[in-house]
Amino acid sequence: MIVKPLSILIVDDELPLRQELRMFPWKECDAVLMGEASNGEEALQLCSHKTPDVVITDITMPVMDGITLIREMKKRYPSVQIILLTCHSDFHYVQEALRLGALEYILKVSMEEEELMQAMDKVRAVIVKERIAQENEKRERRLLQSVLFGKLLLGQKLSSSDWHPIALSEEKPVLLARIFFDVSPSVYLSMKQQIQQTFSNIESSDSDWLTWLTVRDKEYFILIEARSPSEMLKQSFGQLLQSLTDLMKLYSPLLDPSISAHAIISEPITSGEELAHALVSLTEWKNALFYDHALESNVFFGEPQPLADMKEQQVKELIELLRKSSWSTESLKEFLQGEFMLWCFKHRIKPEQLKERVLNWQVEWLKVQENANLDGSSIANLMGAHTLSQMVACIIQDITAIELGRTHSRFEIRSAVQWIKDHLEKPISLPHIAEQVGLSPHYVSKLFREETGSSFNQYITKLRMEKAVELLKHTNKKVYEIAEEVGIPSYRYFTVTFRNWTGVSPTDFKRHS
Hints:
By secondary structure, this protein is α/β, with parallel strands linked by helices. 59% of the residues lie in helices and 11% in strands. It has four domains: 6-130, 3-Layer(aba) Sandwich (Rossmann fold); 171-301, Reverse transcriptase/Diguanylate cyclase domain (Alpha-Beta Plaits); 312-394, no CATH class; 409-512, Orthogonal Bundle (Arc Repressor Mutant, subunit A).
């Protein structure tokens, strides 16, 4: 465990002794002198602004003596370690101070650098041990809190013991914040540890942060004391989300500008019942962001605008609008980017219902398009879209692909691509494909690069990886079974290829999909 330099506060009414301690080589002890006071009262005032790790204090002082100071320090700041400076005549006070919690004492008259260094070593060992214990306790509590939230999200019945990890009361209302990250699994995995370390650092430095926890990938819950005004919370969470999304964009291989994060903050919570209600509300917000994602702010409060079930009349209306705009691909794209989005914003249909209806329409529309079909990756992209604009972009991408296929793709290459898709699980070679379409291997290779932008082998790898992604997401098949199904029977080679393609191993991708 890494422990930063220990901060030291000196408390003594004798100026010469304080001057002597200023000259002590604190850096050699991996410590820094943060301040000094001439009595216990001054020391407590300094501690109210910044709490030291160690207090080195005299016993006999005016205004407030060392014994009273130790008693107050242990009451207000129990984790602070205390070293006593004392005279022979103070020994009965030393016993009292040790009983109250002081860790070590040094005689002023015989104090040597080595003695103080040994005392500092003892202090550091105690602090490290306590912090490890605190971290373990915090980790266990966070795990129990995650279990509690998981049960609440699933609507399971809770026992009184389930509530023990979280203390709620009317005297100290709290707010629940839920953070969503819209980012690819590979980028999130590369950033996950840094995100959680950022939250832990804030939890340690900001007394309003009570705890953070996670139940699902790319989602976090944060409990904070309900003391700060909404505008201040909006500003602080906005800055936090901006810094994290900027980092994630740097980790993205394509510098993806669509990477984003949103925070939803509840009303004040004082009971378990209110916490359960807040979770329901925040879950509704998650669906509402499908429409509200484009708003100027990325921090939201209270209840979202409601979403509606799709009625039969709306189904008919949408299908008719799509039919009228489908006379050309240009008119269809124009409709999707304009009137369609306005229609969706107006009716605010529950996203999953809207996606299913649009997918059904797209399948029917593609049936009448020449040499067009909807592959598994296109379906996954549409159903996995987090926002309305993402969903529309997926549809337009498929339409554009059809346009390119019509205007540029030769029949032989379309036939070759279809044969490859139908036989991905088999060994596929350029000479064999060339024989299938009646062209020379060299000419097929040239056409593939011209029409797909990839070499023959790169294109086959692309298809195999896309199918592997689809199978990992939507089936329970083992990785080696999927490797064989996409035509790469070598588990090792499949794993290396998949990692190069996605940035993560197949096992990690399946775990986090």
